[in-house]
Design a protein that fits this description.
368 residues, alpha/beta, TIM Barrel, 8-stranded parallel β-barrel, two-stranded antiparallel sheet, ThiamineP_synth_sf, transferase, Thiamine-phosphate synthase
Length: 368
């Protein structure tokens, strides 16, 4: 509402009369309120993301980009827009959703706030065209920068956790699959691959969805064996490919740059090819003969030693490794191992996980 002053002789004083906005001015005030609310929303979301970049990742690069974006948003937050704010009269302040009341992990928190920022920037891009000739294009470019930041940040987090992971559980069919995996996660496991060559897709989708939710609630990475389509369907952290599966570049194109792609290798030539093709990590083995890879001869400890000297990316010794021989594998140069039967069939998966990790933690892994 506008205020207009007039002189009232009966009271020998000034009376303030309130005149309504014109229809055009009313629309203008609504636009101002929309811009004000979304400028606040974008800045708040960016600050939440920035705090994790600063304190969670200790990344100066990501922290600085968040800060620059916040400052650029703030430049558009004029006193004229702030003056249009009407928090008591905003019906949206009472609206909520159950998902807003709980975050299952840091990843879900970050994703929610990236969505929040991106939606706010899109609103600012469109309504900003009604406010300033340059506002629409400015926020369009900011929105693209936030998309890039999200992709780079989520990929960086996955790679960080991959490099820190020492023990990798590759699942096999089990009636107690979900409870066994959770027990291992409680023991400190940070990397799980869902592998089932015989189940139908309905069961695979159901189990993969449950496992992905479980892994992310414990802050662990979740990988799908072979199936890029299933990895996309359940929002897995990546896919693991065998030698006969699709090229790494094709999987990367389908999954996007932020997800992980691993490759099984059995000899030095396969290892070097996987690295050259852009694998994020490799499996090295089978170290010992194993029924998981029936009929495949063991690569032996010599290949473990070769990987230790020649792999520039994280690698996991795999194949017949258990509590009885893990120290032999470590002595050959392994800093990370992948386990199947010795965890899936364990009576106490938590304790087995803790023991295996205690042995692996005796050796220093490479830094990311």
């Amino acid at each position: 509402m506008k205020e207009a002053g007039c002189y009232d002789e009966s009271t020998n004083g000034v009376v303030v009369m309130v005149e309504p906005y014109s229809p055009k001015e009313q629309i203008q005030q609504v636009v101002y309120r929309i811009l004000d609310a979304n400028l606040d929303r974008a800045r708040e979301g960016l600050r939440i993301i920035e705090e994790w970049c600063r304190f969670g990742l200790n990344s100066g690069q990501f922290t600085e980009e968040c800060k620059r974006l916040r400052q650029e948003v703030a430049m558009w937050h004029t006193s004229e827009l702030r003056a249009a704010r009407d928090t008591p009269g905003d019906t949206g302040t009472e609206l909520t959703h159950p998902q807003e009341e709980h975050r299952s992990s840091v990843k879900s928190l970050l994703q929610a706030n990236f969505c929040r920022v991106q939606e706010a920037l899109r609103v600012l891009e469109e309504y900003g065209k009604l406010y300033h000739p340059n506002m629409g294009s400015a926020f369009k470019q900011m929105r693209y920068r936030v998309y890039t930041l999200e992709s780079n940040l989520m990929g960086y987090q996955r790679h960080q956790l991959l490099w820190r992971s020492r023990l990798y559980l590759v699942t096999s069919p089990s009636e107690t699959l979900i409870t066994t995996v959770e027990s291992a996660l409680k023991g400190g496991l940070t990397l799980v691959q869902y592998r089932d060559k015989t189940a139908d897709d309905t069961l695979r989708l159901e189990q993969a969805t449950k496992l992905r939710q479980l892994c992310h609630s414990y802050g662990a990475l979740f990988i799908i064996n072979d199936r890029v389509d299933l990895a996309l369907a359940v929002d897995a952290d990546g896919v693991h490919l065998g030698q006969q599966d699709m090229p790494i570049a094709t999987a990367r194109q389908l999954l996007g740059p932020q997800r992980l792609v691993g490759r099984s290798t059995t000899n030095s030539a396969e290892m070097q090819a996987a690295i050259a093709e852009g694998a994020d990590y490799i499996g090295v083995g089978p170290v010992y003969e194993t029924p998981t890879k029936a009929g495949k001869p063991a690569a032996g400890l010599a290949y473990v030693s070769y990987a230790d000297q020649n792999s520039s990316i994280p690698w996991f010794a795999i194949g017949g490794i258990d509590a009885n021989n893990i120290n032999d594998v470590i002595d050959a140069g392994a800093k990370r191992v992948a386990i199947v039967r010795s965890l899936i069939q364990a009576e106490q998966p938590t304790l087995v996980t803790q023991y295996l990790l205690s042995q692996l933690n005796r050796v220093q892994p490479e830094s990311y």
